[in-house]
Amino acid sequence: MNFSMPMDITAIQKAIPHRYPFLFIDRVLEATPWKSIVAIRNITISDPALQGHFPNNPIVPGVVIVEGAAQAAGVLGCISKGSLEQCLFTEITEARFRQSVVPGDVLRYDVTLTKHRAHFVWFEACMSVNGSEVATVKFSALLK
What's the whole-model pTM score? Predict the structure, then answer.
């Protein structure tokens, strides 16, 4: 499978199985196989996760932010391997949240592959809005 940059939502959906309302990246800006990926998500008030989190003060849940990083990693896995059947979390460590992500923000995912062995891969991700870090996480996954 050959992907060109930037990747739009149609190309992303060819790389990973996630679909609305559980697809948390909108565009891939750049990717280097087996190294890193940069993706973005446009946060809107119509996002289902914001309907109850929280009334009169919509904030993107931290688990949704981390899932977006994992989805970007899944796209990187697909680009690196040429195809992908599954990308499954195996561990999440050192998740830190520094500021809220709200409607109108463009959430940027900078995900780096730090190690890989057989089907297992380890990642570090930094999420930011307007150049300001909002969260970081380390995680591992199984790529098949």
Answer: 0.96
